[in-house]
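MOLECULE: protein
FOLLOWS: sequence and fold
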Amino acid sequence: MRLTGLTRFLAAAAVAFLGISSISPVSAADQVTIAYQPLVAIPQGAMKQQKWFEDAAKMPVEWKNFSSGADVNTAFAAGAIDIGLVGLPAFVSGVAQGIPYKLFMLYDVPGTMSGLAVREGSGIKSVADLKGKRVGVPFGSGADYMLQGALKENGLSADDVILVNLQPQPIVAAWTTQQIDAAYIWAPILGQLLDQKGTLILNDGDMAKKGYFAGDVALVSDKFAAEHPDLVKAWVEQNLRAVDWVNGNKPGAYDAMMKEYELTPDQFKQAALPPATAFPTREDQLSDQWFGNGAKGIIASSVRIGEFLKANKLITAAPTEEQLTQRTDASFLEKAKVPPAQ
């Protein structure tokens, strides 16, 4: 059972706070507009702190904050942003909606940084115990996809639980007021639930072993990619420079990420270090698992997610493999020359 009514006010308040309804297009000739999700701790935050992309772009860069991939899709559809971050399900949903953008790189491969937390006193010890319980999750997100997969793997369906559509921040409020018994969400929100005596009983790494993937990806509008391919290439290069900086634990890298995302060392470990998550290098991304061999790996994951979204009536028709192939572009990764990390 999927509920939206109980959270309509909170969701509306979140949208109003983010100012989504008042988005106006900005000319790419004047500046580069980035859709940023500060609730997703990745090396991009370290790059932002160092202003590497600004230096490479040699033009003003505006970073706009969003709380979910659905909001980022709204902004892309409005022509208000040039480059953005979403979870893979949001990309597939956007393709189904006909949003003119392309997927061109991968930001992370989640492990324990995203998962199913259960509230103390809920009586939930395993996924099977979710039957009849209230579970908070952002509908259509990677977390929703993982949760639905976990239910299926344990002989349950959405009709066996009460799924409550909540964005990340409202999940904390619903948890605190005991409106939900469990939540499938990502760090740092996940850490806040665990700090309130929550218990993690399943994570994305567990689901990856069963063939489920819904990590964060980079999107670029067709217009911006056509007019400024050099800037898209620079975006890839500077992000991968930050990946090398963080993966190598080089001086200042961890501090830059913690400062950007306002994380304590413990929270940083929970959100951004193995086994919480992995940040793939250029070589990793160009492997057959992801963008190599015609990007068949990432496209296959996208096809599977499309089937999930359609089955849950989140989209009316799942994008075909051909449509997803047309909306996936590995050329910027292939051309990228990653600058040395600090």
User: Anything to note?
Assistant: The two ends are 50 Å apart (CA to CA). Residues 5-29 have pLDDT under 50 and may be disordered.
